[in-house]
Amino acid sequence: MTLNEAFETLVAPSIDGPRALETLAAVEQSHGQLVANQLLQTWLTQPVTAWSALAQAALMIAHRRTDVAVLVLEAAVAQLPDNIEVLDHLANALVRRAERGRAIEYWRDWTNRHPDDAMGWYKLGYHLIDQGEAAASVAALERARLLAPTMMAVLTNLYTARTLDRQPAASILDDLESEPCQMICYRSCGLFTA
Known about the structure:
Layout: H1 3-11, H2 17-31, H3 33-44, H4 50-62, H5 66-79, H6 84-96, H7 100-113, H8 118-131, H9 134-147, H10 152-164, H11 170-177, H12 180-188
Helix pairs in contact: 1-2, 2-3, 2-4, 4-5, 4-6, 5-6, 6-7, 7-8, 8-9, 8-10, 9-10, 10-11
């Protein structure tokens, strides 16, 4: 594979993570690691689309380069500020780097700009639980619950957050009971005993 062919493969709209890894591995094998790294750097400077940013970030994480994945995703969030999928991947990459506080700030910014987005409030509440901010998590998850009252992930995390914050959580079980199959799974795992 020539370098030109490899570059054209990497910038093709249909590129996916496995194909990108395969292409870079082929370049590394035929031209050496230095050339493969230079090709990678050139690829990373191309105009950002949500798909290219996610593919590049996945590739970097697969190569244990979470630092580069964060850079790619931060650039993508700056160019695509209303793309929740890119933001979610950035938050997850930040958590991998033990930077949950930064991930929370991104979700706070998202919910300020998109106050009617249940998923954004859920993600904020979810990360706040793991940060040990149970009361703030309850507030975010309550907002998500208002926007998406039957979203199981919201209800289960709200139950957890309320329990951690020593708030009454039993009323959430009533909402969870509306999805009996889910509730059976949760109870069989020992998550809910009521």
